[in-house]
What does this fold into?
Amino acid sequence: MVSESDVREALFEVEDPEMKISVIDLGLIYKVEIDGEHTEIDMTLTSPGCPIAPELMAAVHRAALTNIFAALGPKDSRN
It folds into this structure.
């Protein structure tokens, strides 16, 4: 099972490409909520109209998914 702290730890790897500081250290991640198979991450950007918003959001999404898939491990092919 994946925990909020697991996801937050994975998000330490995601840096703002301009500042080179993690989204966690910048305080951009407000909430990580896990409810069964659904994970919700509430975040903000460094500025309104942030030009790197799509890139930053995609990086957060990738890091969270990578962490979740790693925690789940390989599925038994018989299921």
Notes: Residues 9 and 52 are 22 Å apart (CA to CA). Helices lie at 4-11, 53-72. The beta strands are 29-35, 38-43. The chain has one domain: 4-72.
